[in-house]
Every structure is written in C-alpha cells, then in structure tokens.
Design a protein that fits this description.
- With about 180 residues, the protein is of the alpha+beta class.
- It folds into two domains: about 20-105, Gyrase A, domain 2 (2-Layer Sandwich); about 115-180, no CATH class.
- It has helices spanning about 1-15, 50-60, 90-100, 105, 115-130, 140-155, 160-180; strands at about 25, 30-35, 40, 65-70, 75-80.
- Strands 1-2-3-5-4 form a five-stranded antiparallel beta sheet.
- Helix 6 runs antiparallel to helix 7 (about 160-180).
- The chain starts with a helix and ends with a helix.
Length: about 180
C-alpha cells in the first residue's frame, strides 16, 4: 500500500517539462501534433465547412515547400506535409491564419475562463444592485461613493494618514469620471 501511495504522490509532484514550442493560436489555428516535416492543425472554422477546406488545399498546393495537404471537415483538422528546410511551423500557422481570415481574432487579447466568469459575476452584481435600489445606484457608483466616503472620513478624522484618504478620494473621482459620456 505504501508503494502505491508513494508512486501516486511522486506522479503528482513530479516536475513537468514546460514546452516552449510554438503551439499556434488557441481556438483559431492550433498545432495539435508536430514531427519534423509533418504537422496537424485544429482549425475550428474548417469544421463542417467543405468549401473552406477545398480553398485551403488549393491555396497551399501552390506553395512549393508543401508536398501534401489533407483536410477533414468532420473534425476541423488539417494535415500538412512540408519541407522543413524551406518553411517552419510558425510561418505555416501564420499563413493559415491569413488564409482563413482570422487576423483580427489573433490580435485580440484572449480572456481566461476565470476572467469570463468574474466578468459575469460583476455584471450580475451590478444588475442586482441596480434592481434592488430601483435604479438609484449601480455597482460602479456605489464603489465610487464608498471610496469617496472612506477618503473624506480618513482626511477629516485622521489627517496623519493623509495620502491614503486623498488616494481614496482620487479613486472615487477617477471611477466616476470614467463613466461619464464624452
């Protein structure tokens, strides 16, 4: 039993090798598998899109450094066999991003799952505050009011801690001004 526990613990705490290899762009053009001269991409736009698959195959067949292309519209994958001395995987990924017209998506900053959920939580809280106060407050105005109150209280009651109070008043001012329409 101790041997099994030891093996499980060593497996859990074993340092994993971090790969610094380029993996493409998550959810846009991802490198699923790569060996020298052969690469498989996952491109969600290809899924159930036979026309785009044919277009990519035609365009990539014109490149002299690519010897074989096989797309699969059922899985949204693309297999490319290429001359590794003439083209590298990062360049090939860039070409696929360009050919599929996803340059804007690559330039956008991706949002993590935790960031998306936190954003939903804040929107929900904002809606609840707005509904509960019959439209008198929203979350942002309440935060501004709290900063302003704490800041003024600190400035009046504890002048020795002046920077903290002034900072809170400034945050309240900035938070309020950010909401005003230009």
């Amino acid at each position: 039993m101790h041997i099994i526990t030891g093996l499980l613990l060593s497996g859990l705490f074993r340092k994993r090798k971090k790969s610094n290899a380029f993996k493409g762009f998550k959810g846009i053009v991802e490198i699923m598998h790569i060996i020298p001269g052969r690469i498989r991409f996952r491109i969600p736009l290809l899924k159930n899109n036979m026309e785009l698959c044919r277009t990519l195959e035609q365009q990539l067949n014109q490149a002299g450094s690519i010897s074989h292309i096989q797309s699969n519209p059922h899985t949204g994958t693309l297999l490319v066999i290429f001359d590794r001395d003439k083209i590298d995987p990062a360049t090939l990924t860039g070409v696929l991003v360009k050919l599929t017209g996803q340059e804007k998506e690559v330039e956008q900053m991706p949002q993590s799952v935790a960031g998306k959920e936190l954003s939903k939580l804040i929107r929900s809280l904002n809606s609840s505050v707005y509904t509960h106060t019959d439209g008198f407050f929203d979350l942002n105005s309440m935060i501004s009011l709290v900063f302003l109150s704490l800041g003024l209280w600190t400035v009046i009651r504890r002048p020795s801690v002046l920077p903290a109070g002034i900072s809170l008043v400034y945050w309240a001012y900035n938070n309020t001004m950010r909401q005003l329409p230009s």
